[in-house]
Design goal:
Helix content is 17%, strand content 32%. With 140 residues, it is an alpha+beta fold. The N and C termini lie far apart (79 Å). It is built from one helix and eleven strands, in the order H-E-E-E-E-E-E-E-E-E-E-E. It has a four-stranded antiparallel sheet with strand order 2-3-4-9, with no helix packed on it. It has a four-stranded antiparallel sheet with strand order 5-6-7-8, with no helix packed on it. Strands 1-11-10 form a three-stranded antiparallel sheet, with no helix packed on it. It binds FE2/S2 (inorganic) cluster. The site of FE2/S2 (inorganic) cluster (FES) has 11 residues, from loops. This is Cytochrome bc1 complex Rieske iron-sulfur subunit. Its cofactor is [2Fe-2S] cluster. One of its GO terms (cellular component) is membrane. Keywords: 2Fe-2S, Disulfide bond, Iron, Iron-sulfur, Metal-binding.
């Protein structure tokens, strides 16, 4: 009887509404990933902690692309210093537990930046770094 007509009409309307919703869902894509910045920004990884032997240091590209001294005083900690000799600004080299200056022979402690041998008299200025999930990152 008349009940059958009502059922058929409701089915058609429901199908039409679903098709309209489908079009809307297709346009809802996520935003694109932002491109990685060319220069290391504060907080960006400088090196993996595991890349530096415990008790030694290494020269790596710092946050402003200038090389810095990255040290690993203990298994789980990192420290960083300017690589510019405090005597006349030559770049120091990392040699085990020492940082040596090729210009006039100053030697610094690779883990603290302190002067071991002159002519330099001032320690290498520290740079703030921290360890996050095995990565040494710039900033405290
Ligand atoms: S500049 Fe490093 S010892 Fe003179």
């Amino acid at each position: 009887m008349a009940i059958h007509h009502g059922h058929t009409r409701r089915t058609v309307l429901t199908t039409g509404a679903a098709a309209a919703l489908g079009v809307t869902a297709l346009t809802a894509c996520g935003p694109e990933e932002p491109a990685a910045p060319a220069a290391a920004a504060p907080g960006s990884p400088l090196a993996a902690l595991a890349d530096i032997p415990v008790g030694e240091a290494k020269l790596v590209a710092g946050p402003d692309e200038e090389e810095i001294v990255l040290a690993r005083p203990t298994e789980t900690t990192a420290a960083a210093f300017s690589a510019s000799c405090t005597h006349q600004g030559c770049k120091v080299k990392a040699e085990g537990k020492d940082l040596t200056c090729p210009c006039h022979g100053s030697v610094f402690d690779a883990l603290t930046g302190a002067v071991r041998t002159g002519p330099a008299t001032e320690p290498l200025p520290p740079i703030a770094v921290s360890v996050r999930e095995g990565q040494i990152v710039s900033g405290a």
